[in-house]
């Protein structure tokens, strides 16, 4: 058996996905889920990029025990020193430093000669090694670099102390045969002196295929993200490569990962919840329809023998097998806690558990049937809660087909309730305008999504709002969960505002 290391970069490359920024609490929550999933290494951020990244890496380094925590750093001393500092509390840590090696990047972006790039790479790795035992070096845009130069850089950085050499297809340009050839060449050059790693982008839809070609030619580390999130068209989807290795043992033989595939679904849901970016319904492995059989012929075949139409089972990925009709209003705290454990929420503080139980009871009073998905949504809301600078107290909406919609809202801030009202061109507009009047912030709405958490007319509504509160600064995401969609809207918008306020001092200048 030979192990493939899974290097998850959802918190770094994934977060570079347009609109996917996360607050610190959300990052910590996701890091704990990645640990349960069993990733070998998680790239928790880019410490020098912003105080927010630095703080998130430090917090993650303190709480995660079983995965190596990594920070990205450009090949410059300040970045490497910041990375080392952020990783200080980690049980196992790695610095990942990089510089571009392709002619186009060296000439136009870096404005450096190849010999200068080589020198900088070696110096960066030496400095990183003086601060951390485990150092990874990436040749950015490796797959458009001259292969002779790549080999020269590879041998030099390994000599300087790099233990992993990553060869990214930064712009997602290569075809599988081409990527396989690059890895084969590098493998023949470095042998067992370092672990070769692939990091593929999905611009031509080939990230997963290219990663597999890398593995077949000697790479033993795979860089990937949950749901394939990432810069532009994204990165290699973790769930896809892992399930391919597991399902096609006839091709991949003894290659194994440490991933607990039963945690894939929970990880995918969490990333979608936090970022507001949901995989398309027909997305392999984690899409809503990935295990749905619509045609009668298929259903008939499935009933006779599941493997007629299914190559994997939904339970292998941790997809709940039924709607999980749960406890009702008479259920006690112990049964509720049991349910949470079965859903994977086993690291809750007493306060979080109490709050969730209270919300569950309120929900049971209002909703006939409470499903696992409802509980999961309540808990995710609870677990990623940040300081509530503004809190919704009450809301009244008026909307009729001939009149002007208006909202009257009362919000708690610093223990004082503030009330105001505004009209809008619809109820949502009126709500957001009223909140702006009360808070004094003028948010720009970038995205608004509403979905039912489970089924039925009385389903909980989940609203995801993306809003910008400062020009040219990242938009923040807020979630609102309520039986009433408009109440959920107000909660989501306030959530985005609170998230912005909690991160304001940590955003890059
Ligand atoms: O795509 C890329 O080249 C990267 C590197 C920084 C590893 O993300
Ligand atoms: Zn990348």
From TrEMBL:
Its EC number is 2.3.3.13. It catalyses: 3-methyl-2-oxobutanoate + acetyl-CoA + H2O = (2S)-2-isopropylmalate + CoA + H(+). Its cofactor is Mn(2+). GO terms for cellular component: cytoplasm. The keyword DNA damage does not apply. The keyword Cytoplasm applies. Pathway: Amino-acid biosynthesis; L-leucine biosynthesis; L-leucine from 3-methyl-2-oxobutanoate: step 1/4. Residues 4-265 form the Pyruvate carboxyltransferase domain. GO terms for molecular function: 2-isopropylmalate synthase activity; acetyl-CoA C-acetyltransferase activity; manganese ion binding. Catalyzes the condensation of the acetyl group of acetyl-CoA with 3-methyl-2-oxobutanoate (2-ketoisovalerate) to form 3-carboxy-3-hydroxy-4-methylpentanoate (2-isopropylmalate). This is 2-isopropylmalate synthase.
């Amino acid at each position: 058996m030979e192990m493939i290391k899974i290097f998850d970069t959802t918190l770094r490359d994934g977060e570079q996905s347009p609109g996917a920024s996360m607050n610190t609490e959300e990052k910590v929550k996701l890091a704990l889920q990645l640990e349960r999933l069993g990733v070998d290494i998680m790239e928790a951020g880019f410490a020098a990029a912003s105080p927010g990244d630095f703080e998130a890496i430090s917090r993650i380094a303190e709480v995660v025990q079983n995965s190596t925590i990594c920070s990205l750093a450009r090949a410059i001393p300040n970045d490497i020193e910041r990375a080392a500092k952020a990783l200080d509390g980690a049980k196992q840590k790695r610095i990942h430093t990089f510089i571009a090696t392709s002619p186009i990047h060296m000439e136009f972006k870096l404005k450096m000669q190849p010999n200068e790039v080589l020198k900088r790479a070696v110096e960066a790795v030496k400095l990183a090694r003086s601060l951390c035992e485990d150092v990874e070096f990436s040749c950015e845009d490796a797959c458009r670099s001259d292969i002779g130069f790549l080999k020269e850089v590879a041998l030099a950085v390994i000599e300087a102390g790099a233990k992993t050499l990553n060869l990214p297809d930064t712009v997602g340009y290569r075809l599988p045969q081409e990527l396989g050839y690059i890895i084969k060449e590098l493998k023949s050059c470095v042998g067992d002196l370092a672990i070769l790693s692939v990091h593929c982008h999905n611009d031509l839809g080939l990230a997963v295929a290219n990663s597999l070609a890398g593995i077949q030619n000697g790479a033993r580390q795979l860089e990937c993200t949950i749901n394939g999130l990432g810069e532009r068209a994204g990165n290699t989807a973790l769930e896809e490569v892992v399930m391919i290795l597991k399902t096609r043992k006839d091709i991949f033989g003894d290659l194994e990962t440490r991933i607990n595939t039963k945690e894939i679904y929970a990880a995918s849901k969490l990333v979608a919840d936090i970022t507001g970016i949901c995989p398309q319904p027909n997305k392999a492995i984690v899409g809503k329809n990935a295990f749905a059989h619509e045609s009668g012929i298929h259903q008939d075949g499935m009933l006779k023998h599941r493997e007629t139409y299914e190559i994997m089972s939904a339970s292998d990925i941790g997809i709940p097998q039924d709607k999980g009709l749960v406890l009702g209003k008479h259920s006690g705290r112990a049964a509720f806690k049991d349910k949470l454990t079965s859903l994977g929420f086993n690291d809750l503080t007493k306060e979080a558990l109490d709050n969730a139980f209270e919300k569950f009871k309120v929900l049971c009073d209002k909703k006939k049937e409470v499903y696992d998905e409802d509980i999961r949504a309540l808990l995710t809301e609870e677990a990623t809660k940040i300081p509530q600078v503004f809190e919704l107290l009450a809301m009244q909406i008026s909307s009729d087909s001939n009149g002007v919609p208006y909202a009257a809202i009362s919000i708690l801030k610093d223990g004082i309730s503030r009330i105001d009202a505004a009209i809008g061109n619809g109820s949502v507009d009126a709500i957001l305008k009223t909140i702006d009047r009360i808070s004094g912030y003028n948010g720009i709405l970038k995205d608004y999504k509403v979905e039912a958490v489970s089924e039925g007319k009385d389903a909980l509504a989940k609203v995801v709002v993306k809003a910008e509160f400062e020009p040219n600064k990242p938009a923040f995401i807020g979630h609102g969960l309520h039986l009433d969609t408009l109440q959920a809207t107000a909660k989501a918008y306030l959530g985005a505002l609170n998230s912005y306020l909690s991160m304001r001092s940590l955003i890059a200048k």
